[in-house]
Here is the input.
Amino acid sequence: MSDVLAAVKFDAEGFMVDPNAWTKEIAEAIAAREGMVLTERHWVVINFARDYFKKNGESPTPRNITKNSDVTTKELYELFPGGPAKLAAKVSGLGKPHGCI
Amino acid sequence: MDMPKIDKNIRKLSIIASKGSLDMAYPPLILANAGRMAGVEVNLFFTFWGLDIITKKKMDHLNVSVVGNPSMHPSFHIPTLVGVIPGMSAMASWMMRKEIAKLDFPPVGEFIELLTDAGAHLYGCKMSMDMMKLTKADLVDGAEVLGAMEFIEMSEGGQIIFV
Here is the structure.
């Protein structure tokens, strides 16, 4: 396991407990743990998610992401094949999104 | 009391949509989308009136039945005797579409497109299609035609929801 994650606290499902402790290096390490390599397009989603969290205090749902960025539903699922709602939030250091869509 | 053990390896969800009214079209679509959001494989089977949800000519014109619908929310509630007046169903449907849009749920046609983009699989029930004289060309792009038995086989080992 990566050293970067050694000091990071996660909940039982693998979401970061403190979103403010998140760094880009942590994002890369979480992605690696989930079997992903982050591309420029992943970062579009991550930056959007971080920004959304700053404004709304919660994780964006896939529909929040696709309606407010140039990432389409298809692309979002290709970027986060294990389920975009949870994976995007995990990599972005945020909690599980609660919206239904 | 012990809680039933949940097998975390089951990552497959089958949803059978058998109703085609506006209020009954959304639950299977929302559940299917929630499944895909969580990375669960989702197969949707549209049977009987549920076929309207993926029939191109009907999907964006689904209506709420106001007569004999005991579950109408107070804000939509229309007494049965008033419900028989022409136009009441259209009005209730219009109101419901507005409420659905407020929650940021897309109209049925767009919702189906969202689900296909999200990788959910859509199947029209072969028997129902024969009964309603529909062919694959009548269904939305991406939907396949399937027999009930094949759908049950496909669902093996996963969870099934009937709506």
